[in-house]
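Whiteboard transcription, Tuesday session. T.W. wrote the structure tokens on the left side:
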């Protein structure tokens, strides 16, 4: 997809189409050196006078350098930038129009999610950082520090499909789907930010700092009680008020005298996983204020620094182990100034609940998400750590649209061969893909089912939903024909780089169709090749090929599932099998074939006479 940006407002309507779609990318103004802000912004405004439209992205570290607050400790690759993307077209959309545009993009189809999410700090490191912050507060260096860390992992599926899923899970006023110009480490921005940094309409600036959080999963009395408790919580009110005062001070530097107001304090806003406390600060800006002056006065937003702002940002540089990047920076639109004015209308969000993705590598993209919490003198490290986890749940709680499952043999005597191997594979996949998984409960469920009386061997199928729910089904095991099983070659090819191939998921329409096609021809299974021409596996079995007196099976790197029976055969020194890439020519030259799964064991097989391996 070419460079494009959708600023996505959940409140946008036909009467007030406040979502914006930017297309027809022309150029980027990248301001690496804050000292060049005035000259570079003049070039932005020249483009605006020529009819182009501006989209702004500002990194937190660029703000640190702008204010000379903690910038000395930045590594060269972490200096950040202010980026302004210029487009030929800006179309204002309602929520429904934005939805239709997203649905019309072919890149938005299919399942999407995350895997291998890891925090940049462990719980112990988090607690140590909070202890250091408490020492700084006790020494009078700061009142509040917004401490943050990163989640790193991989995203699978298309970035647009992932954004659509997040958008459905957490509708917000400041969503953003941005495909960046090529060449940098970040290729896509997916933002579900609920927080306004600054909006300016006709010279009236509005900030809506967000400080104060409560999980929507903790109060048994329900949402209304959770919201009430948050609204009355002294600690959260104190945190919020500190930041309100900070923003009043920031805006006061560029506001007309006496115009700074606080029309609303301690409002509670519901989101998919948390309640947030917000307040509203407004100011009438002085006529001589332009965007450079505004950024110097107010960026980055005080809600993600702490108070006092400048020294607290210096402390943040000491306490945090990884750069924030776009997280805690700003994203938004900036219109051209009206005739005679220094500043046009604009709307910038605080870039929280914001993912950045990198270039695709082997079917996945590197992913970074920042999370954090405001720390004051009475903050408890364990509570703040849990708050960060709540805030990340808009992503970590995202259902990818499939389940994990295991299919086990239950013998007529009620035995479950290889039970622990099945459970180990399920646990590994659940950990990688972020599924909640209680292995003890899974074991108990299967053992209980095996104890039920039955006339013969059975097939047990245990499915695991993303949220941790198990579903167990069972069916009699039908007998197989005597002799070698027949195999067909599937016409369809499997993708070469499928990050989900290593996991047994319900996302298997291609394989299920292959099994049905085989059964329709009187065969046991269909063998699949990859788009690169390598043998992968059967629709319901692993395959071994005998060449030169030795057995070989396709490697996992070619897309084969780590089947339980496959692993047992590879571990069997007497069988002597090994992994090897296999072609159609290898299959045609095979001295013998063997297919296997945990349900049926290892079975001799042959290609049906109709099968073509050309």
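and on the right, the sequence the group agreed on:
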């Amino acid at each position: 997809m070419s460079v494009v940006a959708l600023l996505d407002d959940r409140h946008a309507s036909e009467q007030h189409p406040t979502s914006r779609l930017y297309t027809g990318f022309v150029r980027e103004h990248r301001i690496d050196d804050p000292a060049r802000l005035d000259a570079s912004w003049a070039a932005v405004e020249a483009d605006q006078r020529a009819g182009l439209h501006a989209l702004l992205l500002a990194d937190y570290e660029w703000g640190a350098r702008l204010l000379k607050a903690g910038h000395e400790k930045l590594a060269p690759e972490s200096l950040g930038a202010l980026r302004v993307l210029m487009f030929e077209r800006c179309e204002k959309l309602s929520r429904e129009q934005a939805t239709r545009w997203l649905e019309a993009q072919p890149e938005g189809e299919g399942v999407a999610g995350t895997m291998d999410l890891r925090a940049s700090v462990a719980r112990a490191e988090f607690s140590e950082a909070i202890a250091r912050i408490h020492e700084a507060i006790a020494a009078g260096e700061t009142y509040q520090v917004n401490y943050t860390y990163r989640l790193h992992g991989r995203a699978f599926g298309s970035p647009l499909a992932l954004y659509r899923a997040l958008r459905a899970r957490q509708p917000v006023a400041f969503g953003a789907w941005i495909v960046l110009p090529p060449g940098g480490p970040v290729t896509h921005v997916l933002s579900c930010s609920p927080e306004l940094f600054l909006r300016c309409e006709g010279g009236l600036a509005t900030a809506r700092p967000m400080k104060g959080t409560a999980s929507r999963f903790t109060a048994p009395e329900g949402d209304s009680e959770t919201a009430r408790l948050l609204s009355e919580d002294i600690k959260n009110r104190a945190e919020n008020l500190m930041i309100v005062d900070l923003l009043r001070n920031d805006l006061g530097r560029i506001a007309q005298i006496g115009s700074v107001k606080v029309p609303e304090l301690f409002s509670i806003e519901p989101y998919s996983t948390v309640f947030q406390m917000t307040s509203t600060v407004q100011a009438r800006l002085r006529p001589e204020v332009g965007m450079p002056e505004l950024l110097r006065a107010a960026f980055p937003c005080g809600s993600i620094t702490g108070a006092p702002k400048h020294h607290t940002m210096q402390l943040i540089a000491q306490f945090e182990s990884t750069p924030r990047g776009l997280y805690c920076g700003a994203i938004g639109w900036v219109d051209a100034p009206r005739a005679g004015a220094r500043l046009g209308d604009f709307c910038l969000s605080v870039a929280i609940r914001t993912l950045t993705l990198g270039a695709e590598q082997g079917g996945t993209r590197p992913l970074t998400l920042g999370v954090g919490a405001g720390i004051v003198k009475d903050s408890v490290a364990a509570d703040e750590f849990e708050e960060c986890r709540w805030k990340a749940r808009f992503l970590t709680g995202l259902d990818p649209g499939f389940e994990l499952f295991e299919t086990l043999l239950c013998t007529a005597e009620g035995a479950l061969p290889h039970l622990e191997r099945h459970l180990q594979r399920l646990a590994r996949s659940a950990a990688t893909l972020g599924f909640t998984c209680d292995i003890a409960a899974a074991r108990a469920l299967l053992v209980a089912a095996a104890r039920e009386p039955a006339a013969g061997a059975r097939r047990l199928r245990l499915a695991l939903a993303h949220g941790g729910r198990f579903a167990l089904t069972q069916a009699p095991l039908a007998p197989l024909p005597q002799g070698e099983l027949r195999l067909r070659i599937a016409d369809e090819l499997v993708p070469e780089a499928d990050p989900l191939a290593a996991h047994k998921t319900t996302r298997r329409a291609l394989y299920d169709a292959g099994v049905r096609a085989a059964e329709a021809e009187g065969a046991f299974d269909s063998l699949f090749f990859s788009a690169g021409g390598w043998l992968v596996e059967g629709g319901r079995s692993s395959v071994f090929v005998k060449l030169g007196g030795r057995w070989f099976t396709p490697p996992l790197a070619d897309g084969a599932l780590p089947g339980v029976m496959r692993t047992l055969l590879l571990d069997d020194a007497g069988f002597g099998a090994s992994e090897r890439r296999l072609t159609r020519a290898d299959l045609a030259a095979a001295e013998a074939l063997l297919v296997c799964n945990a349900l049926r064991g290892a079975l001799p097989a042959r290609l049906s006479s109709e099968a073509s391996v050309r």
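Someone added at the bottom: The CA atoms of residues 19 and 98 lie 7 Å apart.
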